[in-house]
């Protein structure tokens, strides 16, 4: 089998290094045409230290060209500082403006509240700060190109700044959804549906075949639970991430409190060390939100809440009565939400509402199974008597949204990631059932971590004619020639004079000089030059000593003949090199002397020698037949002499050295004259 050159393989590899049949540590590797791209670099919220990282140890980080981050959640960007600062990665990293603004806030808090030793910390705050310098920005719908990889992004909903990335390599398009939601909520737009059909869709499968309840019912159930808990004198804990669903829930609660005056003496706390920073970011990026928020901002900033107070630390909290506390982190691993949960979980009046998706291995996921007790951070066992409820405000696509999204895009290849194994398998089966009678040919995959999906794409290569060559319209069947430039996966054909204008290349000329030994007769050399050039030989100069000439052959080859050396000079090109080889061959043939000087046709002799030959023959014939016997005749092929001898008439062709005569004796006599007139006899 022929070896496939690196970069020319038609195989596209998609390999989850994280989020393969799991939720957490999203990191998807794409390899195609010698290019490598990583999509997200998160950590697993249920694991600690290096165990929480994606399986990046299975790849050569130095060969990764590009890293694209979809949004600021830890399971999508939590491993980014480690990857940028502690690996051999030298590529480029991109995210949206809002994501970069929120990224250091979220990760700084993660570093501070992580309940692990320093030896297990993935990175320090200094390394987090350094990573900011390596992150570049991209606007929605802005197309960028890195090493031949084209990419742009679409609104994904989910959280502020979240995006889906469309990647194009050698004409093959791959859409990575990240986390997305096709439903508009109180402050975020719904995810866009790209107008371009991708060849491959890499989609989240978080909720599998589940279907979310509608927004109105969900909000009513949520506010009713909160109302019930505080009305009985209990504390209502709502674990949330500092940015994302927290702002959605705060908008709902602030509106609900405004409509219910009897609740307005019960405080709502946004308990996060990042509370003020988070709200400042949200107030800055209003333009990234939906029309509802943008209309409200003209009257009043909707994120300046009337009934919500910020709570930086539990040290500033007076636990003296019913209240509502939204505290981070959202899965109760550590931090304020964990401290408050352990304080309140033993009281039956209190309640905890889980409002987002929970990953396996976290306390939030565990308490949904209604255990009798839980283990506190200090190792002590605590009774779980408080009410635990689940109302999903998670801005992930459900089955209905996923199915509709796929139906509109109709990708021929579908890869599911970011979902627990059972949910992912159910979703894959449901989608395949839905499309079994559809003429659209679709294949789907649900790979495990480090399990590659292999697809093959063999696209046609097209070349674009540009520059001065493009000014002339080519007809069908025309042969077009020029300089072919391949830049990444684009081919352009142009005139050599345009190369420096369209590329970073500069045009240079190589002057070649070759010297060949020659000590033979100049007439012989001239004969061979005329033979190989078909007469395209110019005499530029004759040297005074009579032993050399300066010639030009084919209009591009300069020949200096100076016995005993013939010097050939030309500007190198494929055609000129061929001409030069021809001249060298002629010199070598003349030097071997395989053709005798006497056998050279007069036609091959240069102009001056021809004239000498003509004079010599004419003088000989005058001596033999007299001055009046000769008449010169001009013809198309040259000149001829007519000789009259008594009744005989002879015609002598001086170029062809032939005689035509009606008298055999005269014919024999003139022929002998021509045979005697060789260059050795008449050249002076």
From TrEMBL:
Its main location: nucleus. One of its GO terms (biological process) is mRNA 3'-end processing by stem-loop binding and cleavage. InterPro entries: Beta_Casp (IPR022712), CPSF73-100_C (IPR021718), MBL (IPR050698), Metallo-B-lactamas (IPR001279), RibonucZ/Hydroxyglut_hydro (IPR036866), RMMBL (IPR011108). It is found in: Nucleus. Residues 24-234 form the Metallo-beta-lactamase domain. This is Cleavage and polyadenylation specificity factor subunit 3. Residues 476-681 form the Pre-mRNA 3'-end-processing endonuclease polyadenylation factor C-term domain. GO terms for molecular function: 5'-3' RNA exonuclease activity; RNA binding; RNA endonuclease activity. Gene3D superfamilies: 3.40.50.10890, Ribonuclease Z/Hydroxyacylglutathione hydrolase-like. GO terms for cellular component: mRNA cleavage and polyadenylation specificity factor complex. Residues 246-367 form the Beta-Casp domain. Keywords: Hydrolase, mRNA processing, Nuclease, Nucleus.
């Amino acid at each position: 089998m022929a070896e496939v050159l690196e970069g020319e393989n038609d195989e596209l590899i998609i390999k989850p290094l994280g989020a393969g049949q799991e939720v957490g540590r999203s990191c998807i590797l794409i390899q195609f045409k010698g290019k490598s791209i990583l999509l997200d670099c998160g950590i697993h919220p249920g694991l600690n230290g290096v165990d929480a990282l994606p399986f990046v140890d299975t790849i050569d980080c130095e060969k990764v060209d590009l890293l694209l981050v979809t949004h600021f959640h830890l399971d999508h960007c939590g491993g980014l500082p480690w990857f940028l600062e502690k690996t051999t990665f030298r590529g480029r990293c991109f995210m949206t403006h809002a994501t970069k603004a929120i990224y250091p806030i979220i990760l700084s808090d993660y570093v501070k509240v992580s309940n692990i030793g320093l030896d297990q910390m993935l990175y320090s705050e200094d390394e987090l700060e350094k990573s900011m310098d390596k992150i570049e920005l991209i606007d929605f719908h802005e197309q960028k190109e890195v090493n031949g990889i084209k990419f742009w992004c679409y609104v994904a909903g989910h959280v502020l700044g979240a995006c889906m990335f469309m990647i194009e390599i050698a004409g093959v398009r791959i859409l990575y959804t990240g986390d997305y939601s096709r439903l508009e909520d109180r402050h975020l737009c719904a995810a866009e549906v790209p107008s371009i059909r991708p060849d491959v869709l890499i989609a989240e499968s978080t909720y599998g075949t589940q279907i979310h309840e509608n927004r109105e019912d969900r909000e009513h159930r949520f506010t009713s639970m909160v109302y019930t808990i505080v009305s009985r004198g209990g504390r209502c804990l709502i674990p949330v991430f500092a940015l994302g669903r927290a702002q959605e829930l705060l908008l709902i609660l602030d509106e609900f409190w405004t409509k219910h005056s009897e609740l307005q003496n019960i405080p709502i706390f946004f308990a996060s060390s990042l509370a003020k920073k988070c709200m400042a970011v949200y107030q800055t990026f209003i333009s990234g939100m939906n029309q509802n928020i943008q209309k409200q901002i003209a009257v009043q900033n909707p994120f300046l809440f009337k009934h919500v107070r910020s709570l930086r630390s539990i040290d500033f909290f007076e636990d003296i009565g019913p209240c509502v506390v939204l505290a981070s982190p959202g899965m109760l691993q550590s931090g304020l939400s964990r401290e408050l949960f352990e304080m309140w979980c033993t009281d039956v009046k209190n309640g905890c509402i889980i409002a987002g998706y929970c990953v396996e291995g976290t306390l939030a996921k565990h308490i949904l199974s209604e255990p009798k007790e839980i283990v506190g951070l200090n190792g002590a066992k605590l009774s779980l008597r408080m009410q635990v409820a689940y109302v999903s405000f998670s801005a992930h696509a459900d089955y209905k949204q996923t199915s509709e999204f796929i139906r509109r895009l109709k990708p021929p290849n579908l890869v599911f990631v970011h979902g627990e194994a059972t949910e992912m398998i159910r979703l894959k089966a449901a989608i395949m059932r839905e499309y079994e009678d559809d003429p659209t040919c679709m294949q789907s995959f649900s790979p495990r971590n480090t399990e590659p999906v292999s697809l093959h794409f063999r696209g046609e290569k097209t070349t674009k004619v540009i520059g001065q060559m493009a000014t002339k319209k080519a007809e069908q069947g025309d042969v077009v020639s020029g300089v072919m430039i391949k830049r990444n996966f684009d081919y352009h054909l142009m005139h050599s004079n345009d190369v420096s204008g369209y590329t970073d290349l500069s045009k240079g000329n190589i002057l070649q000089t070759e010297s060949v030994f020659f000590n033979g007769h100049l007439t012989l050399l001239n004969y061979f030059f005329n033979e190989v050039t078909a007469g395209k030989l110019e005499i530029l100069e004759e040297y005074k000593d009579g032993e050399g000439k300066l010639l030009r052959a084919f209009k591009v080859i300069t020949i200096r003949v100076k016995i005993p050396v013939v010097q050939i000079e030309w500007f190198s090109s494929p055609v000129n090199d061929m001409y030069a080889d021809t001249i060298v061959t002629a010199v070598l043939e003349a030097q071997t002397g395989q053709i005798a000087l006497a056998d050279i046709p007069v036609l091959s002799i240069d102009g001056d020698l021809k004239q000498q030959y003509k004079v010599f023959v004419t003088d000989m014939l005058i001596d033999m037949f007299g001055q009046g016997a000769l008449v010169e005749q001009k013809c198309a092929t040259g000149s001829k002499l007519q000789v009259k001898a008594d009744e005989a008439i002879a015609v002598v062709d001086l170029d062809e050295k032939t005689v035509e005569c009606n008298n055999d004796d005269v014919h024999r006599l003139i022929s002998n004259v021509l045979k005697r007139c060789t260059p050795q006899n008449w050249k002076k």
